[in-house]
Amino acid sequence: MTSFEEAKTEETVTCLHLTFYHPGQEEKMMFRCLNFCKREKVRADDTAKFGRDSSVCRYSLMDTRVSRIQFSLQFYRKLHTLECGFEIKNLSKKTKLTVNQTELGHLNKIDLPWKCIICFGDYQILAEIQEGESVDYFETHLHMAEAPILQERCLPCLPSLQPIPENGISPSLFLPQGKSPTEIDENEL
Protein backbone atom coordinates (compact mmCIF):
# COMPACT_ATOMS: atom_id res chain seq x y z
CA MET A 1 0.00 0.00 0.00
CA THR A 2 1.15 3.51 -0.72
CA SER A 3 1.06 6.38 1.76
CA PHE A 4 -1.82 7.84 -0.25
CA GLU A 5 -3.89 4.70 0.30
CA GLU A 6 -3.08 4.68 4.03
CA ALA A 7 -3.86 8.36 4.59
CA LYS A 8 -6.88 9.29 6.71
CA THR A 9 -10.04 10.21 4.84
CA GLU A 10 -10.43 13.97 4.71
CA GLU A 11 -13.47 15.42 6.44
CA THR A 12 -15.34 18.35 5.06
CA VAL A 13 -15.64 21.25 7.48
CA THR A 14 -18.76 23.27 8.24
CA CYS A 15 -18.10 26.86 7.24
CA LEU A 16 -20.08 29.88 8.40
CA HIS A 17 -19.87 32.65 5.79
CA LEU A 18 -20.61 36.08 7.29
CA THR A 19 -20.98 39.16 5.08
CA PHE A 20 -20.93 42.45 7.03
CA TYR A 21 -22.44 45.81 6.13
CA HIS A 22 -22.79 49.14 7.95
CA PRO A 23 -23.65 52.44 6.19
CA GLY A 24 -20.71 54.21 7.88
CA GLN A 25 -18.09 51.52 7.31
CA GLU A 26 -15.96 53.70 5.00
CA GLU A 27 -15.45 56.62 7.41
CA LYS A 28 -15.75 54.86 10.79
CA MET A 29 -13.82 51.67 9.92
CA MET A 30 -15.62 49.61 12.56
CA PHE A 31 -14.60 46.37 10.81
CA ARG A 32 -10.84 47.06 10.90
CA CYS A 33 -10.19 44.28 13.46
CA LEU A 34 -11.97 41.59 11.42
CA ASN A 35 -9.96 39.24 9.23
CA PHE A 36 -11.74 39.30 5.86
CA CYS A 37 -11.37 36.83 2.98
CA LYS A 38 -9.43 34.25 5.01
CA ARG A 39 -11.03 31.17 6.56
CA GLU A 40 -10.45 30.85 10.28
CA LYS A 41 -10.71 27.61 12.28
CA VAL A 42 -12.76 27.68 15.48
CA ARG A 43 -12.88 24.77 17.91
CA ALA A 44 -16.32 23.20 18.16
CA ASP A 45 -16.49 23.81 21.91
CA ASP A 46 -15.60 27.52 21.59
CA THR A 47 -18.32 30.15 21.47
CA ALA A 48 -17.77 32.72 18.74
CA LYS A 49 -18.59 36.09 20.36
CA PHE A 50 -19.12 39.36 18.51
CA GLY A 51 -18.92 42.76 20.19
CA ARG A 52 -16.79 45.74 21.17
CA ASP A 53 -14.61 44.11 23.89
CA SER A 54 -11.62 42.54 22.11
CA SER A 55 -10.48 40.79 25.31
CA VAL A 56 -13.70 38.72 25.37
CA CYS A 57 -14.90 38.72 21.75
CA ARG A 58 -13.24 36.75 19.00
CA TYR A 59 -14.76 39.16 16.44
CA SER A 60 -14.40 42.81 17.49
CA LEU A 61 -16.47 45.66 16.09
CA MET A 62 -14.86 49.03 16.74
CA ASP A 63 -17.98 51.04 17.50
CA THR A 64 -19.11 52.56 20.82
CA ARG A 65 -22.76 51.85 19.91
CA VAL A 66 -22.04 48.12 19.87
CA SER A 67 -22.39 46.30 23.21
CA ARG A 68 -19.31 44.91 24.93
CA ILE A 69 -20.63 41.48 23.92
CA GLN A 70 -23.34 41.84 21.27
CA PHE A 71 -24.13 38.22 20.39
CA SER A 72 -22.64 34.73 20.31
CA LEU A 73 -22.73 31.79 17.92
CA GLN A 74 -22.44 28.27 19.32
CA PHE A 75 -21.72 25.28 17.09
CA TYR A 76 -23.59 22.09 18.02
CA ARG A 77 -24.69 18.70 16.74
CA LYS A 78 -28.43 18.16 16.42
CA LEU A 79 -29.93 15.43 18.59
CA HIS A 80 -30.18 11.95 17.00
CA THR A 81 -28.61 13.12 13.70
CA LEU A 82 -25.20 13.72 12.20
CA GLU A 83 -26.29 17.24 11.23
CA CYS A 84 -24.58 20.24 12.81
CA GLY A 85 -25.91 23.73 13.25
CA PHE A 86 -25.41 27.05 15.01
CA GLU A 87 -27.34 28.69 17.80
CA ILE A 88 -27.37 32.48 17.99
CA LYS A 89 -27.87 34.23 21.33
CA ASN A 90 -28.37 37.96 21.94
CA LEU A 91 -26.04 39.01 24.77
CA SER A 92 -26.79 42.75 24.60
CA LYS A 93 -28.95 44.20 27.37
CA LYS A 94 -29.69 47.36 25.36
CA THR A 95 -30.03 46.32 21.72
CA LYS A 96 -32.45 43.84 20.22
CA LEU A 97 -31.12 41.46 17.59
CA THR A 98 -33.19 40.42 14.58
CA VAL A 99 -32.63 37.16 12.73
CA ASN A 100 -34.67 37.44 9.53
CA GLN A 101 -37.95 38.58 11.09
CA THR A 102 -37.47 37.06 14.55
CA GLU A 103 -36.60 39.61 17.24
CA LEU A 104 -34.38 38.42 20.09
CA GLY A 105 -34.21 40.25 23.40
CA HIS A 106 -31.41 39.89 25.98
CA LEU A 107 -30.39 36.21 26.43
CA ASN A 108 -32.93 34.95 23.85
CA LYS A 109 -31.54 32.35 21.47
CA ILE A 110 -32.65 30.46 18.36
CA ASP A 111 -31.18 28.10 15.78
CA LEU A 112 -29.48 30.01 12.99
CA PRO A 113 -31.22 29.28 9.66
CA TRP A 114 -28.90 28.02 6.90
CA LYS A 115 -29.23 31.45 5.23
CA CYS A 116 -30.42 34.54 7.08
CA ILE A 117 -29.83 38.21 7.81
CA ILE A 118 -28.81 39.28 11.30
CA CYS A 119 -29.57 42.93 12.15
CA PHE A 120 -28.82 45.15 15.15
CA GLY A 121 -28.57 48.92 15.09
CA ASP A 122 -27.35 49.85 11.59
CA TYR A 123 -25.48 46.55 11.19
CA GLN A 124 -26.55 43.96 8.63
CA ILE A 125 -24.86 40.54 8.51
CA LEU A 126 -25.72 37.92 5.93
CA ALA A 127 -25.05 34.47 7.44
CA GLU A 128 -24.79 31.40 5.20
CA ILE A 129 -23.94 27.92 6.48
CA GLN A 130 -21.95 25.58 4.25
CA GLU A 131 -22.43 22.11 5.74
CA GLY A 132 -19.56 19.79 6.62
CA GLU A 133 -18.83 16.58 8.51
CA SER A 134 -16.24 17.57 11.10
CA VAL A 135 -17.41 17.78 14.71
CA ASP A 136 -14.04 18.92 16.09
CA TYR A 137 -14.07 22.41 14.60
CA PHE A 138 -15.79 24.70 12.12
CA GLU A 139 -14.55 27.58 10.00
CA THR A 140 -15.66 31.16 9.62
CA HIS A 141 -15.15 33.11 6.41
CA LEU A 142 -15.81 36.85 6.70
CA HIS A 143 -16.70 39.13 3.80
CA MET A 144 -17.56 42.83 3.49
CA ALA A 145 -20.54 44.03 1.44
CA GLU A 146 -20.26 47.23 -0.59
CA ALA A 147 -24.04 47.80 -0.66
CA PRO A 148 -26.76 47.23 1.94
CA ILE A 149 -27.50 43.52 2.22
CA LEU A 150 -31.24 44.03 2.67
CA GLN A 151 -31.55 45.82 -0.69
CA GLU A 152 -28.97 43.64 -2.44
CA ARG A 153 -30.49 40.28 -1.43
CA CYS A 154 -34.17 41.33 -1.30
CA LEU A 155 -34.56 39.72 2.16
CA PRO A 156 -36.26 42.35 4.28
CA CYS A 157 -35.84 42.39 8.07
CA LEU A 158 -39.05 44.37 8.31
CA PRO A 159 -42.41 43.46 6.81
CA SER A 160 -43.67 45.56 3.92
CA LEU A 161 -45.65 48.60 5.01
CA GLN A 162 -47.46 48.87 1.67
CA PRO A 163 -51.03 47.46 1.85
CA ILE A 164 -52.05 45.10 -0.92
CA PRO A 165 -55.60 45.60 -2.27
CA GLU A 166 -57.87 42.54 -2.42
CA ASN A 167 -58.19 42.75 -6.19
CA GLY A 168 -54.42 43.15 -6.59
CA ILE A 169 -54.84 46.47 -8.48
CA SER A 170 -53.59 49.61 -6.83
CA PRO A 171 -56.31 52.31 -6.82
CA SER A 172 -53.63 54.98 -7.22
CA LEU A 173 -53.19 53.88 -10.84
CA PHE A 174 -56.66 55.20 -11.73
CA LEU A 175 -56.83 58.37 -9.66
CA PRO A 176 -55.77 61.79 -10.89
CA GLN A 177 -52.62 63.04 -9.18
CA GLY A 178 -53.25 64.61 -5.78
CA LYS A 179 -56.65 62.88 -5.37
CA SER A 180 -57.18 60.22 -2.74
CA PRO A 181 -59.87 57.55 -2.71
CA THR A 182 -63.05 58.42 -0.81
CA GLU A 183 -65.54 56.06 0.71
CA ILE A 184 -69.17 56.29 -0.34
CA ASP A 185 -72.25 54.54 0.94
CA GLU A 186 -73.52 51.84 -1.43
CA ASN A 187 -77.02 53.42 -1.21
CA GLU A 188 -75.66 56.62 -2.76
CA LEU A 189 -74.81 54.87 -6.01
In the CATH scheme, the class would be Mainly Beta
**Structural class per helix/strand content?**
mainly beta
Output mean pLDDT.
83
Quaternary organisation = single chain
Provide a descriptive summary of the structure in words.
This protein has 189 residues and is mainly β. It has helices at 3-6, 25-28, 149-153, and strands at residues 15-21, 40-43, 47-51, 59-60, 71-77, 84-90, 97-99, 102-104, 109-111, 115-120, 123-130, 137-144. It is built from three helices and twelve strands, in the order H-E-H-E-E-E-E-E-E-E-E-E-E-E-H. A seven-stranded mixed sheet has the order 2-12-1-11-10-7-8, with no helix packed on it. The radius of gyration is 23 Å and the shape is globular. Residues 153-164 and 168-178 have low confidence and may be disordered. Residues 49-121 form the FHA domain. Its main location: cytoplasm.
